[in-house]
Amino acid sequence: MSKYITLIACFGLFSCSTIGYVSMESLYPSELSFPLDVKSVGIVDNAVNHDTLLANGITIGKLEGDGKIMARQFAVNLADANYFEYVMLCDSSLRSGTRMDAPLKLSQEKVRQLTSDLNVDMLVTVDGISIKTWPDVELMGDPPYPVEVVEGEISTVISVYVPSRKEPMHLALGAQDTVFWELIGPLTEKYIVEDASSYGASLPLKYLVPQWKPEERLYYSGGCVELRDAAVYVKENNWEDAFLLWKKSYESSKSKSKKRMRSALNMALYYEMQSNIPEALKYAKEAMDLAKPGSPDKKYITFYYSAQLSDKSVKMQKLELQMKRFDKK
């Protein structure tokens, strides 16, 4: 099975000598799934763009982003993801010079024309990007000190079309994030719009391609010789030797002991890192069953097993299907 988990770093122990934690990244499926024969994508600017930005100063309130900038950067981001075979960018804007309330939905005829002209299987339109700004203060530096900034909520909208469908696959998929700009130097509306439009191109990627996401996990680093020695291996990123000690501790412990509970949870972490989610679930469930009711162990393991691993198990099945496009034929 392909591995979709990468260890970022292993941090030291905290609070007490029996608990440690690791940070890692896991690959999660995109929100949308596409047929395997969708191998090429065309990106089109379908936003209404205006050139009425202030040359000096900033208007606090709502600004319209630049669809051309977002479409160009979105095409670059999508190509860099290496999920589709190739990505094409349309060099013209579909709604240039039209009113804000003009319909954004493309007709099937227009979709067929564009996919044919670009020689692609699927079309993604950048339908809009808006920036809502307000003044704020951020604490920065060490020691922290207040800095005046302009905060901005960036909202983007895309749509997805294939030529064989009369209706869009998905119309008006929105994504948001908040950023800020320091009030230093010549901060202008033009700069904010260009920067926000470029950054906003990263927000809709979650709909189209699998994404790496940071995660944090606890593990037991004490309570017996094997777990203490394994913690040294963990700090050295030597997970195979750590697992052998966890397995030794598990097999030598009594069936309902705390030692077995701790070893089982650690083994669940190892299997999760190997993308073997069924085995991870198996040992996490055993650890949850062995943990004392009402204890911090019980609360964490229940959360780890029920809220995280179980959800991950479902998503990994979706990811496996999405990654089949890379299977050798």
Descriptive notes:
This protein is α+β, with helices and mostly antiparallel strands and 329 residues long. The chain folds into two domains: 5-29 and 216-326, Tetratricopeptide repeat domain (Serine Threonine Protein Phosphatase 5, Tetratricopeptide repeat), CATH 1.25.40; 40-209, Double Stranded RNA Binding Domain (2-Layer Sandwich). The chain has helices at 67-80, 108-118, 189-200, 205-208, 225-235, 239-252, 258-273, 277-290, 296-322; strands at 5-10, 19-28, 40-45, 62-64, 86-93, 122-140, 145-161, 170-182, 211-220. Strands 3, 4, 5, 6, 7 and 8 form a six-stranded mixed β-sheet that branches. It has a three-stranded antiparallel β-sheet with strand order 1-2-9. 33% of the residues are buried.
Descriptors for this entry?
329 residues; globular; 2 domains; 9 helices; alpha+beta; three-stranded antiparallel beta sheet
Cα-atom Rg, whole angstroms? 25 Å
What is the helix/strand order? EEEEHEHEEEHHEHHHHH
- Give the CATH topology of the largest domain: Double Stranded RNA Binding Domain
Mean pLDDT: 89
Low-confidence stretches: 8-16
Q: Please identify, by name, the CATH architecture of the largest domain.
A: 2-Layer Sandwich
Q: What would you call the structural class?
A: alpha+beta
Beta-strand content bin: 25-35%
